[in-house]
Amino acid sequence: MAAAAEPSPIDARHFRTVLGSFPTGVVAITCVEASTTPVAMIVGSFTSVSLEPPLVSFLADRSSSTQARIRARGRFCANVLAADQERLCRTLAARGTDKFDGITWEQSPLGNPILPGIVSWIDCMVDDVIEIGDHYLIVGRVHALHTVTDKTPLLFLRGAYGDYFSNAALVLDRLMDWP
Q1: How far is 27 from 44, CA to CA, in rounded Å?
Q2: 25-176, superfamily in CATH?
Q3: Which pTM does this prediction carry?
Q4: Beta-carbon count within 10 A of 168 CB
Q5: Is Glycosyltransferase one of the keywords (predicted)?
Q6: Cβ(59)–Cβ(128) below 8 Å
Q7: Interval 103-147: pLDDT, tens
């Protein structure tokens, strides 16, 4: 059997475009540093890993100072953002230390921020961190979780935010060749 040929280099922009055609949920990962300073980052890679034990995970860029702070704290809360929370998403995704100015939040059982108006939250202790390429896969052991509302979650697709209904309508329009 012949050895597999080395893959051709993949253009980063093309890679992002192709992978961006798959919708992802938008989740705010939060924690509180020892100084009671709330910390947050936005991810589109949150997923369930295991039922027994209950594990979830997300990917974070290795260069992110926020992921380093979350890992150092050893716990986080995954806040599933609602479709009407794009502004909150953009605020928490911005660089800087004043992300939480004007944002009220409740404390999770582990002391992490639970954001207002979200769909659900999952409170975790960091269980494992695996370096993969230019990211860390951060695995959390679930300690508590709750569905807050039946609102539709915020999605990210093709470089834009939306929800299931607006994205479904866009797809249907294209399939039916409607204007």
Answers
A1: 6
A2: Electron Transport, Fmn-binding Protein; Chain A (2.30.110.10)
A3: 0.85
A4: 11
A5: no
A6: no
A7: 999 999 999 999 999 999 999 999 999 999 999 999 999 999 999
